[in-house]
Amino acid sequence: MRNLMHRHLGKLVAGAAAALAGTAVLAAVTLPGDAGATGGGSRTTAAEGPGAGTGQAPQIRPGAVERAPEEGSTGVGRDPLTDDEVARAQALATPRTFRGATEDVKGRAGPERLTTDLAELGPDETGLADPPRRANVSFYDYRSDAYVTKTVNLTTGKVEKTDSRHGVQPPPNRAESEAAAGLLIAAPEGAGLREDYKHATGKELTGPGQLAVRGFVYRGEAEGPAPPGLRACGEHRCVRLFTKVRDGQWIDTRRYVVDLSARTVGRLG
């Protein structure tokens, strides 16, 4: 009886593991009932499947991966923005005249694109059966050091609102974090980073593509006393970095601040 119990429990563990793994068909798992005590039968805890009631191990068919349904060009109601809507909103928000008057993190024409999100409805639009769909498109303009947000009405194709602010510093995007890492690597202040990378990998560190980097904003005097070379941060676009050898160890670069507006590197403390 003890051996029989062990065999049944072995089936239970195997069946439960298969169910947790997300298989398409539940295994039929039979638990030992009160047979040892009262002579009763067994009880089934999952749907019947091939092999159920035969004493054989249940056959588990491999799961199938289905294709995601195709996304339409336009969302409905409060659906997230579709890829087509994101591309259209960004194009409407950056006409030629705006691109020519702004710069991105690499100094090229056009602002640095940050986020594109579905905009909130107005108070008188929440009850509408088919409310307008709008997108908030945000940028950072390195020519004027301004954070710019444009509200685009995707139903009418018009830019309804433009908001430009100085001294507002949203989180950096990936391109900005990598640009900051490139400036740090090339600067005299990056000597320690280069040495640590060579010690960890045996190779020379020549560019940000060799690192996994994550940036976060440094706001200068708003965060406490700042060294003279970093006092413009907050008005300038300044970034601190978490750096890591790809598939390797972390290298501590948190004391260094890269001023992306001035393209300089400073050190805290």
TrEMBL record:
**Low complexity compositional bias: what residue ranges?**
43-59
Keyword list (alphabetical) reads: Signal
- Presence of keyword 4Fe-4S: no
Bias (Basic and acidic residues) occurs at 101-111
On the tree of life, the source organism's domain of life is: Bacteria
Per the record, which residues fall in region Disordered?
Answer: 37-111
Signal peptide start-end: 1-27
Query: Per the UniProt record, which residue ranges are transmembrane?
Result: none
Q: What is this protein called?
A: Tat pathway signal sequence domain protein
> What is the organism field in this record?
Streptomyces chrestomyceticus
Upper lineage ranks?
Bacteria, Bacillati, Actinomycetota, Actinomycetes, Kitasatosporales
